[in-house]
Amino acid sequence: MAQDKPLDIVVIGGGVNGTGIARDAAGRGLSVLLCEKSDLGSGTSSASTKLIHGGLRYLEQYEFRLVRESLMEREVLLRAAPHIIWPMRFVLPHNKSLRPAWMIRLGLFLYDHLGGRKLLPGSEGVKLADHPSGGPLKDDMTKGFVYSDCWVQDARLVVLNAIDARERGAEVLTRTECVSARRVDELWEIELRDLLSGQMRKVSARALVNAAGPWVASVLEQRVGSNRAAGLRMIKGSHIVVPAMFDHDYSYIFQNPDGRIVFAIPYEKDYTLVGTTDVEYEGDPAQVACSEDEISYLCNAVNEYFKSEIAPKDVVWTYSGVRPLYDDASQNASTITRDYVLDLDEQAGRAPMLSVFGGKITTFRKLAEHAMEKLCPLIACSAPDWTATAMLPGGDIGTQYGDVDFDAFVERFKKQHAWLPQELAWRYARNYGARAAMILGDAKDLSGLGQELGDGIYEAELSYLVEQEWLVEGADLLWRRSKLGLHVSKETAARIENWLAQHALAGRRAG
To answer: Tell me: the pLDDT tens digits for 437-459?
Structure first.
């Protein structure tokens, strides 16, 4: 049964772009519903290299607008969510057979100055023999360059946007698919199905946003009945995780003879993350997986630089995602633009539809702003942009916007809750920021957190995630809202799954 009053916007897709648009729209006072057929961020948005970055290599492709916008967004997002985003220094060992040093210096000069950098340190040249990052590298690597970007817990970024959207009035539905959407005069009539209960629901809306990522074309063709899906090109990116290859906090960016770059990044304290690949993909995005060829490619790429080599047998985990890029007719998958395209289907007297193609996690907030710039005139919304100076939930860890001293926050948090084990206090602070207080409640000791399911995971955290973050199954916690799946035992994972089977459905009411 349809609601009495039409919504302003229905958003299909719970990735970073969909939740970002829902958040922006809700903050302008619009009525918003977002539906996601799986878990929030379960597709491309949780399969990134987890960088908030300008994209140094995009300078060679003359993507100056994209790089400038991305560089500016680094510090906007760092201020907004300093608990899940933090600065990282990258080391680029110079391989003179690939790019001359002057070209790298010029690129880094542009990288330092295009985006109005204020918080992050600039680039510098280093002698690797005298630098902490030089030890793991082969002896013929003598010169390097160091520059700044940021790291992000990508799936948590998606969830925080969804929380903010909900707290500003949006309705967020996970495990809910759009069955059909059709125009009826000046409204969209949309049919939804709850995939857990099977319950059907009809809503109407003045505008429809298709932010389904790799499924944007199938939504257009199979749910909307539109032929506007031409222009989507799906590119698979895969990553591997191996035991830690170095014991410092620097990350590496390696040049390769094929023109691609590969990152090697400290990951989850005990591991190194290596990625990514660029491979054309034509299958079901839900079935994407890292191939043996990709594993070998990534191993060989880093083995060109590190003294200690890795092999496929060393890989402890892989993940892959499909980038829904706009087809700019590039021959090489790695040179296809990462810029976004917003396709507005607008007809006089008919409800508008906006489809999102391409984009990168760094620019999601600007993408959302641009989406609203297109939609607002069509739905009589005059509210101004607002997200550039707004914290994401949990980000208010300092005294004012722009305080990004996470270490000081952690020390305060540990002192306030001295009964928490140090590692657990750090994890709560890093994952939840100021909202960690909602997990602890009135607890004065570990018994106040309820049953321990193993490996430092307590009922209080699971209850918070169910009630506030749409947690339904174990993978939502172990591989998206955290990467605890790399650390916990099989027994702990099973206990979490059993606990959620008993408690999670009640949490769906939070949406």
So the answer is: 999 999 999 999 999 999 999 99
pTM score > 0.85 for this model?
yes
pLDDT tens digits, one per residue of 33-69: 999 999 999 999 999 999 999 888 788 777 888 888 9
Distances 3 to 189, 202, 340 between C-alpha atoms, Å = 11, 7, 33
Q: What is the DSSP string of 155-169?
A: HHHHHHHHHHHHHTT
pLDDT digits (tens, 9 = 90+) for 449-504: 999 999 999 999 999 999 999 999 999 999 999 999 999 999 999 999 999 999 88
Report the chain's terminal Cα–Cα distance, integer Å.
19
CA–CA dist 146, 305 (Å, integer): 16
Q: Cβ–Cβ contacts within 10 Å for residue 129, how many?
A: 12
Distance CA 181, CA 66 (A): 32
Question: Could you report the per-residue pLDDT of 117-135, keeping only the tens digit for each?
Answer: 888 999 999 999 999 999 9
Q: Are 110 and 59 in contact (CB under 8 A)?
A: yes
pLDDT at position 200, please?
97
Distance CA 482, CA 472 (A): 14
Question: How many other β-carbons are positioned within 10 Å of the β-carbon of residue 180?
Answer: 14
Beta strands 176-184 and 187-194 are antiparallel
Angle at 41 between CA 51 and CA 70, to 5 degrees: 30
Write down the pLDDT at residue 1.
42
d(C-alpha 315, C-alpha 296), whole Å: 10
Tokens representing 364 are 């999601």
Query: What confidence score (pLDDT) does residue 500 get?
Result: 95
Per DSSP, the residues of 257-310 read TTS-EEEEEEETTTEEEEE---EE--S-GGG----HHHHHHHHHHHHTTBSS--
Q: Which long-range contacts (CB under 8 A, 24 or more apart) does 433-441 make?
A: 433/81, 433/82, 433/83, 433/84, 433/393, 433/394, 433/395, 433/396, 433/397, 433/409, 434/83, 434/394, 434/395, 434/396, 434/397, 435/393, 435/394, 435/468, 436/394, 438/464, 438/468, 439/464
Among 377, 431, 355, CA closest to 18 = 355
- 354: its two tokens: 């906006």
Angle at 273 between CA 270 and CA 275, to 5 degrees: 175
Q: Burial, 284: exposed, middle or buried (Cβ in 10 Å; 0-12, 13-18, 19+)?
A: exposed
pLDDT for position 60? 75
